[in-house]
Amino acid sequence: MPRVKVLDAAELVSGKGALVTVNGQDVALFRRDDEVLAIGNDCPHQGGSLCAGWVEGDIVICPVHGWEFDMRSGACMTVPGENVPRYAATVEDGAIYVEETE
Length: 102
Prior knowledge:
Elements: E1 4-8, E2 18-22, E3 25-32, E4 35-40, E5 54-56, E6 59-61, E7 68-70, E8 86-92, E9 95-100
Antiparallel strand pairs: 1-9, 2-3, 3-4, 4-8, 5-6, 6-7, 8-9
């Protein structure tokens, strides 16, 4: 997947998620200091929207049943072996770009 411009960087507030769509996939964006992290938005448990979850450090907590995900790796901290996709996010010229990682 090529790199896609998804959002103006000023629109992403620290501690809150933002939902964007990249090539038909819902992606949750989060700001951690000067870094932007991007993971798949749908919790594998029951499809809860991770961008609406609670952020604690590098962890986002699903608002539906509390599953916890590492925003850096996409790994589920609650149920080992579960995960969500991780995307590479960069900020350039005031815009956020997202692309799939391998």
